Amino acid sequence: MKFSVVIPLYNKGRFIESAVQSVLEQTLAPLEVIVVDDGSTDDGAARVAALADPRVRLIRQPNAGVSAARNRGIAAAQGDWVALLDGDDAWHPEFLAALARAHRACPEAQMLGTRFHTVVEHTGRPFEPWPVPEAFCETELIDDLRLRWMKNTPLCSSSVAIRTELLRSMPERFIEGEAWGEDLDLWFRVSDLAPVAVVNAPYATIRGEVPGSLTRRDLARELPPFLVRMRQHAMDGTIPARYRQSALWFVAQLQVTMARAALAENERLESLRFLLRARGSMLSRRWMMTMFMTLFVPVGLADRWQRWRVRSADAFAQEPVQ
After folding, report:
1. Bridge partners, residue 9, by sequence
2. pTM for the predicted model, two decimal places
3. Which Pfam family, any one of them, does this sequence belong to (predicted)?
4. Long-range contact set of residues 13-16: C-beta below 8 Å, sequence gap at least 24
5. Contact 61/68 with Cβ under 8 angstroms?
6. How far, in Å, CA of 257 to CA of 253, rounded?
7. What are phi and psi of 200, to 5 degrees?
8. Which band of pLDDT confidence, cut at 50, 70 and 90, is reported for residue 128?
């Protein structure tokens, strides 16, 4: 398997060398590492240009957003697979090898991924390889990714690879101009076309709470565009019939998630508004629990409950549906 690794870069100078080095140190060597500098104003691009490895390619473009940077890298990729890594994250040395094992186990899959873990680390120091227990390295073949996502988060934008030919056959790859859900939007559209194989072990590390990070989001007031499109595409037949019900359920579950986020910020009216619009999950245990907390639980306790629930979630998962 020949992997082209695409790394979008925007003002992550203190992290980018660690990210690139984690790719170059893979036991299964990548074909190339394409870093797309999206108009950074720090020294990140210069640090990449100074790396003495012929596999590293630097592409510069005016600032156009992370989706445009990823699309530019995909267009330039020469490998059979495009693997994605954000500029402030890193891989375990066995990450690409784990993807190759997943492909051998599930050759029908067109998207491969691994689980991941989150650390709070702002200095940019390289990560020492972390232990990955073999007992948790089984490969899971996923047919309905939305339904699987409701259980827990099986992959992220720094732990996924997609077959290049499939990506280039799609009319749209990452939707440009959107900053929330642009990755999920693509994962689910790919999964509508072919199965997904995931290694259920954390072979990627993402940095949490980094200022300017793509993982940091302000409280949403409206349903993000990718969920609006998903709901519309489920109703108009764009999404294959066998996935339409889970697509509508997924949208409703994300509305409950947004209600919980609003509740944690003491935005009770916002929480109630999202819950009342989550028609597809009304009367589910998760919906009813959130409604109860919104209506009856004192502000401080509701906030502590939400933050405790997030901290206590499975280390490999994000927002598990209960």
Report:
1. 37
2. 0.88
3. Glycos_transf_2
4. 13/40, 13/42, 13/43, 13/44, 13/47, 14/123, 14/124, 15/87, 15/88, 15/89, 15/124, 15/207, 15/210, 16/44, 16/47, 16/48, 16/87, 16/88
5. yes
6. 6
7. -85, 55
8. confident
Domain ranges for the chain = 3-207, 225-312
At 265, the pLDDT band (50, 70, 90 cuts) reads confident
For the chain, the maximum distance between any two Cα atoms, rounded to a whole number of angstroms, is 61
d(CA 240, CA 237): 7
Q: Does domain 3-207 have CATH number 3.90.550.10?
A: yes
User: What whole-number distance in Å separates Cα of residue 5 and Cα of residue 91?
Assistant: 11
When pLDDT is averaged across residues 114-131 and rounded to a whole number, the result is 86
**pLDDT tens by residue, 173-212:** 999 998 789 999 999 999 999 999 999 999 999 998 665 5
Q: 252 by DSSP, 3-state: which? A: helix
Query: What are the structure tokens assigned to 191, written together?
Result: 């999964």
Q: Which two tokens stand for residue 137?
A: 């390295």
Dihedral, CA atoms, 271, 253, 82, 69, nearest 10 degrees?
-20
Q: Which residue has the tokens 């090898």?
A: 97
What tokens appear for 27 in the block?
A: 């036991």
Does the pLDDT value for residue 312 go beyond 70? no
